[in-house]
Specification:
heterodimer, A: alpha/beta, 5-stranded parallel sheet, 5 strands, globular, B: mainly alpha, 2 helices, elongated
């Protein structure tokens, strides 16, 4: 649940540092607070730490802990958490998960800056433009 | 799974990631450059080329798959 006036926190998990940096720049420019993790296990540590989190942006194709497995573990602890899967292999995601859960969406890689902002806003606020 | 078949998606994944970085940072530059700046058009060309390269990737993937089948 997003509290009015409180920072809206997005955790970006991707094993590629330049992609995390780009996502941070794009989302911070839209007023979000951005945290980063370079793999699923590092992200899960943040979950264990109990840090406030509104949206998980998960690269699906990561070593050690896959984005899908990481999101599953997040959702067990935080069923209301919004999850944006970022993947270049949407077919692969759909093969394993023909239907997305509530509060989930996917974004194809590479994404434009506008499409990332729209996808995040749509999940969090139900609108492609973040309310001001 | 043959090595060539296993490597092919990894290579495409890496290529996709590189293109994603080009598209994203070109987009950030475009936000900072007014359209009147001659560099705006240059950066737009870079971004469009990266997006066009992405559009070609399914054909590259299909080609790689057919080559892998021939090798196997």
């Amino acid at each position: 649940m997003i509290t009015e006036g409180a920072p809206v926190v997005v955790l970006v998990v991707d094993d590629e540092e330049p992609i995390r940096r780009a996502a941070r720049r794009i989302l911070e420019g839209d007023g979000y607070t951005v945290l980063e993790a370079d793999d699923g296990s590092a992200a899960i540590e943040r979950l264990i730490d109990g840090q406030p989190l509104d949206l998980l942006m998960a690269d699906l194709n990561m070593p050690i802990v896959s984005g899908d497995e990481m999101a599953r573990r997040f959702r067990q602890a935080r069923p209301d958490l919004k999850v944006l899967y970022v993947t270049g292999h949407i077919d692969g995601l759909m093969d394993e998960r023909p239907m997305l859960w509530e509060h989930e969406a996917f974004l194809e890689k590479p994404f434009t800056n506008e499409s990332l902002k729209e996808a995040v806003s749509l999940l969090l606020f139900g609108s492609t433009r973040r309310p001001r | 799974m043959p090595d060539a078949e296993r490597r092919e998606p990894e290579a495409l994944h890496a290529l996709r990631n590189h293109l994603a970085v080009v598209v994203s940072f070109a987009g950030l530059l475009l936000e900072d450059l007014p359209e009147s700046d001659p560099r705006h058009g240059d950066v737009l060309e870079i971004q469009n080329a990266a997006l066009a390269a992405m559009a070609v990737m399914p054909r590259v993937a299909a080609l790689a798959q057919s080559v892998n089948k021939e090798i196997a």
